[in-house]
Amino acid sequence: MEEVYEFLKKAGVYYLATCEGDRPRVRPFGTIDIFDGALCIQTGRVKKVAEQMKANPNVELSAMCEGRWVRLSAKAVLDERIEAQEHMLESYPELRSMYAPGDGNTEIYRLTEAEACICSFTEPAKEYRF
After folding, report:
1. What is the rounded average pLDDT of the residues 10-33?
2. Which end of the chain is flanked by fewer CB atoms within 10 Å, N or C?
């Protein structure tokens, strides 16, 4: 999990795919954190992405960095603890102008049942499960 986390932090932006009915939805994301032993992402409760993850928790994300890419499939499980929100916002203080722990909008999703692969055209793929 640590290597996938470090890759995503270094990439800065990854693309998160969710489902809305039978249609895929992809958008750029930038928050990634490890909290209480799980890889986590953050969004606002009022956003469609939160609604989509609650309706269908199966997500995928992908990012590219320095000639390598990561693909990750997981279930996004809402973590309602204030501590998870605080930890994320400590890692991303620039978000404090839009989010605050306990504001009723900040949502943290744990990525569970995760399968990831870091690939390149020149190195063997590395696979992870967490």
Report:
1. 97
2. N
User: Strand, helix or coil at 109?
Assistant: strand
Cβ–Cβ < 8 Å for 123, 129: no
DSSP string for residues in 45-58: TTSHHHHHHHH--E
In this prediction the pTM is: 0.96
Locus of tokens 């992908």: 62
SS3 36: coil
pLDDT per position as a tens digit, 30-55: 999 999 999 999 999 999 999 999 99
The DSSP letter of residue 8 is H
Query: Burial of 17 by CB count in 10 Å (0-12 exposed, 13-18 middle, 19+ buried)?
Result: middle
DSSP state for residue 122 in the 8-state scheme: S
Sorting pLDDT into bands at 50, 70 and 90, what band is 3? very high
Class of 2-129 per CATH? mainly beta
User: Can you tell me the distance from the alpha carbon of 81 to that of 102, in angstroms, rounded to the nearest whole number?
Assistant: 9
